[in-house]
Write a structure and sequence with these properties.
The chain has 118 residues and is mainly α. It contains six helices and no strands. Helix 5 packs antiparallel against helix 6. It has two domains: 65 residues; 44 residues. The mean pLDDT is 90. 81% of the residues lie in helices and 0% in strands.
């Protein structure tokens, strides 16, 4: 049962990662990392496929070996978070909400930018 659950979760996170490739508000890498982790527990075949994939494999290997994120990934993250906060600025009326989101986005940006570049 645990293997089946891991396999189902791997496919769910893979689907979310694929959606993230096309929607700027959805992250790709965190979902891809979760898909890889669950696939290792649920399906050796899916796990091998992810690491052999021409696009996903490089991201997974870079992260696993060095905790590295590509330059385009870093730029996309910073631009998406900036655009998201700007959108929230015009939508939220709560200064506390805006401040909380700004702090969260700054923490995320700092983490992403501080990672080695792939």
């Amino acid at each position: 049962m645990a293997k089946l659950t891991a396999l189902v979760l791997a496919y769910i996170f893979l689907a979310l990662a694929l959606i993230g490739l096309f929607l700027p508000v959805m992250p790709t890498v965190p979902f891809l990392l979760l898909a890889a982790w669950f696939s290792a527990k649920g399906s050796e075949r899916l796990h091998r496929w992810l690491y052999a994939h021409p696009h996903f494999g490089k991201m997974l290997i870079d992260w696993e070996e060095r905790g590295a994120i590509s330059r385009t990934g870093k730029v996309a993250t910073v631009l998406t978070l900036s655009a998201s906060w700007t959108f929230l600025y015009f939508q939220l009326e709560s200064i506390w909400g805006l401040t909380a989101m700004a702090i969260l986005f700054i923490v995320i940006t700092t983490f992403v930018v501080s990672r080695p570049t792939a």
